[in-house]
Amino acid sequence: MRVLLTTRQGTVVARTKAICQLKALLVGAPQQLRQHFRGMTTDQQLERCTRLRTVPSHSAEHRATVRALRISARQALFLEAQAADLETELEELVLDAAPALLEQPGVGVVSAAQIIISWSHPRRLRSEAAFASLAGAAPIPASSGQITRHRLNHSGDRQLNRALHTIVLSRLQHHAPTRAYAARRTAEGKTARDIKRCLKRAVARQVFRLLESTAPPQDAGDPQPDDRAQPHVSAAPGSDATPPPPACSRSPRLDPVLPHDQHAQQRGRPPLSTPQASDLKNHVPRGLVRDLPRPTPTS
Prior knowledge:
Elements: H1 2-27, H2 31-34, H3 42-49, H4 60-97, H5 109-119, H6 128-134, E1 140-141, E2 150-151, H7 158-174, H8 176-187, H9 192-214, H10 260-266, H11 277-280
Antiparallel strand pairs: 1-2
Helix pairs in contact: 1-4, 3-4, 4-5, 5-7, 6-9, 7-8, 7-9
């Protein structure tokens, strides 16, 4: 589904470029040729350009322009037919994956395919709030002082956000409950951008719950997406050898408990000696020196 949708998007972009090229050629075409396309729609111009012919009496500029117009028009129509074929294949896949999604108001084949691709599979997202955050439809607080407001979220999957935006625009035109909601929010002082933001959040909640509820149950033996394969090393049959620990485990370093003197000698430090009264005289307050034992004079 993702491959077909990406190919269709590229085909539609190429068709748009071909039509723009056709329009530019018509602007710079000779006056005798350009006057035949005045007042025509784009589809009529494409159909007319595919049937253009030249005669030897025409000038070289006229013949070259006619040939360029004919090639551009045929290319645009060919790409349009390819996009229609890809959309038909997408519809079959969407009907197989989530047929209830196409029954929702404003949801077309392309929007439904993009929603299914971003949703991927059941229990991938923990809640409908996470799905709204993925779609860039979660509101971001932008309050200041005594004004409480939210702004648009410009992050997330922009293709999914585009699909939700298309659904909202369709519902604002053809869905009576959505139009009533927009009228009520407008009376409350909401702007058109805020209304569309709220509607996209509601559509994200609706489609996520629909996909999670209608998804086919997975088998108990199938591994879940969150499972991680743990390496297991077993010993050879008939041997008492203990399997080695995993490569990622590290045994703590245990140093032998040694006396302070031996430990200091290993580190290259002098061992501690017993302090004498003369050594402590300079480090003990004057009032406490009298209590220290005095050294015995030697004869």
